[in-house]
């Protein structure tokens, strides 16, 4: 059998890495198809190098553009590769334009689609990711749900139970596989002059937050209030999308240390030593939960409700006072919760299921 691994952005590379490791270990025939949605070194190559992943056999180099442009280019490029390679199955991970376009191109060619991280829903259709997730799930043949809750969502949408497998989330595998190495290699904190448990870590890049000048400014004001009250540094590795909007809107936060996006090992170090994390990222909400670090989510909804249920995360929205209130609440809680995202063997399960079935 032959497997195509499609990926295109930072979180897909990180979350697909445990699956790729397992394919290597079992010597299964596969190839990596990179869409090129992310191309900057610190959003792309750095993860291949650090996670020791093989080179992509194909890179479609679609780059940035409007949703339609990006999705259409990926659709055409993936179709060409699948026609040449005729794999039995394509695996996609998550909810980006690369994921949906890859799944759609494959299903029309009758190539089976396996969706890693299926069944997540924010129930907010203004998010491009929500559209991508729903459509991908509904053209998939294998739906690898990270949690029983995600499975229930898929069943509720009429997807047959034979297609759904609860595997855990591959981010747990990626964290377990890399945290030790991150700790050993670590000089990230000292290079940024940070003391463990005496700083806040921020990430913010969602389109609905950073493309709206008032919303972006309001969140930054909230972060400023947090910094003023707790008087410890706030570090924000800025996604290039957000950097572009900051420049465009003339936003220049004073009490936040803005840095370039960092590698996965550096980011794991920053996360695991943070006093608290404020974020609008999906993966970062999960990692905070897995690492036992309190999280405040700078959104009105989340497709990771398990984090709210176990008590690792609070939804703060984007208003300054609420961001401050949620930070106070999370800081006063005990950081004791169990990780709902699995045991770190999701990659093994996914590879076992597809190889036994094909
Ligand atoms: C994309 C995903 C989002 C995911 C995020 C992970 C979609 C709709 N969005 O958002 O779900 O959370 O990736 O980080 O698929 N840019 C660079 N270098 C790059 C890539 C992008 O500078 O390597 C800049 C460009 O100015 C570009 C902008 O970032 O216009 C947005 O890039 P895009 O890929 O459209 O979306 P992301 O915000 O990265
Ligand atoms: N991440 C990283 N460096 C950074 C910021 C994030 O390596 O500077 C990692 C983080 O550990 C997580 C992933 O990027 O695994 C999350 O990606 P992102 O927030 O871009 O996307 P989302 O998860 O929201 O789709």
What does this structure look like?
The protein is α/β, with parallel strands linked by helices and 358 residues long. It has 2 domains: 2-169 and 342-356, Glycogen Phosphorylase B (Rossmann fold, 3-Layer(aba) Sandwich); 180-331, 3-Layer(aba) Sandwich (Rossmann fold), CATH 3.40.50.2000. It contains 16 helices and 13 strands. The strands form 2 sheets. It has a 7-stranded parallel β-sheet, with helices on both faces. Helix 14 links the parallel strand 12 (295-297) and strand 13 (313-315). Helix 1 (10-25) packs across helix 16 (346-357) and helix 7 crosses helix 12 (264-273). The mean pLDDT is 97. The structure holds uridine-diphosphate-N-acetylglucosamine and uridine-5'-diphosphate.
Please report the first level of CATH classification, the CATH class of the largest domain: Alpha Beta
Question: Please, how many domains?
Answer: 2
**CATH architectural group of the largest domain:** 3-Layer(aba) Sandwich
Provide the helix percentage.
40-55%
Q: Any idea what the CATH superfamily of the largest domain is called? A: Glycogen Phosphorylase B
Q: How far from one another are the termini?
A: 7 Å
| Structural category | alpha/beta
Approximately how much beta-strand content do the residues carry? 5-15%
Helical segment count? 16
Radius of gyration over alpha carbons? Answer: 20 Å
Name the hetero compounds present. uridine-diphosphate-N-acetylglucosamine, uridine-5'-diphosphate
